[in-house]
Amino acid sequence: MKRSGSWVLGILALAGCLSGGNVLAADPSVPAKPMREITLVSVDFEGTKVWVPGTLVAKKGDRVKLKLINRIMTGPNTHGFAIDDFGVKVVVARETPQSVVFTADKAGLFPFHCHLHPPHIGGQILILE
Ligand SMILES: [Cu+2]
């Protein structure tokens, strides 16, 4: 008897986990379109200004929110962040993080860069089909 009782408990626990997952998936507060949030930091790496990470990934149709932080402590107070293919162009002051949202409405590999300083190393965003 005791053995079958623990079976029942095990099945109930499993059912609870499964229904819990279903409840979360059906939660109406979860937006239909995912918002993909990515934080980028501009740093000085041994004398080279670079946005990190250098490669971002999203899926076509995603809303992409980029949080941009300028942590370069020397030189100009501002650095730029631009993705020309998506009309993104932001100036980020050292003490003032910025956020920008855009829709990844086309797939492909698109460069981003600092539009204020051409030598500042940018990167790329890969939008998957
Ligand atoms: Cu720059």
Keywords:
single chain; 129 residues; alpha/beta; Immunoglobulin-like; 2 domains; four-stranded mixed β-sheet; three-stranded mixed β-sheet; 19% helix; globular; disordered N terminus; binds copper (II) ion
Can you walk through the features of this model?
It is a single chain. The chain is of the alpha/beta class. The protein has two domains: 1-30; 35-128, Cupredoxins -  blue copper proteins (Immunoglobulin-like, Sandwich). Helix content is 19%, strand content 45%. It is built from one helix and nine strands, in the order αβββββββββ. The protein has one helix at residues 2-25; strands at 35-45, 48-52, 55-59, 63-70, 78-83, 88-93, 98-103, 108-112, 123-128. Strands 2-1-4-7 form a four-stranded mixed β-sheet, with no helix packed on it. The longest helix has 24 residues, at 2-25. It is globular and about 45 Å long. Residues 49, 79-80, 114, 116-117, 120 line the site of copper (II) ion.
Briefly, what is this?
The protein is α/β, with parallel strands linked by helices and 129 residues long.
